[in-house]
Amino acid sequence: YERCCLESLDEIIPKSKTNDIWIYGAGIAGRIMLECLIKNGIEPKGFIDINFQRIENINGYKVVGIDGIENINKAFLVVSLMRYRDIVVEYLDENHIDEEHYLYVYAKNTINIEW
């Protein structure tokens, strides 16, 4: 999944200069995305997740619902999930977040992470 992040940096870096970067998805893929972004000089504002009330924060980064995004007009979402693409895209559309305000970074294969 980190390779997916690295391949996406060409699109994320320019957005990070004018937008607040938020990671959509607080699971394993989102955590890998967080590490990758930080290693490459991008400081995200936090995470967006449907389970935000249960998670609250990850490594000091707040986890909010879509309504909790600060300055939505300046937000750019890096959607970092391993599945549920159609559901997430529909959810973003329902919340009036169009394609120019997010990038879907998708791991095509299931990954195994050893803890």
Keywords:
6 strands; alpha/beta; disordered C terminus; 4 helices; 115 residues; 6-stranded mixed sheet
Short description:
This protein has helices at 2-18, 28-39, 52-55, 85-94, and strands spanning 20-24, 46-48, 57-58, 61-64, 75-81, 102-106. By secondary structure, the protein is an alpha/beta fold. Helix 1 crosses helix 2 (28-39).
Fold and architecture overview:
- The chain is α/β, with parallel strands linked by helices.
- It contains four helices and six strands, in the order H-E-H-E-H-E-E-E-H-E.
- It has helices spanning 2-18, 28-39, 52-55, 85-94, and strands at residues 20-24, 46-48, 57-58, 61-64, 75-81, 102-106.
- A six-stranded mixed β-sheet has the order 3-4-2-1-5-6.
- Mean pLDDT is 85; it is low at 109-115.
Mean pLDDT: 85
- Given the helix and strand composition, which structural class is it? alpha/beta
Q: What is the 3D shape?
A: globular
Total of helices: 4
- CA gyration radius, whole angstroms: 13 Å
Strand order of the largest sheet: 3-4-2-1-5-6
* Span of the ends, CA to CA: 16 Å
Order of helices and strands: HEHEHEEEHE
| Count of individual beta strands | 6
The major pleated sheet works out as: 6 strands, mixed
The stretches of 5 or more residues where confidence is low (pLDDT under 50) are: 109-115
Give the fraction of residues assigned to helices. 25-40%
Strand content: 15-25%
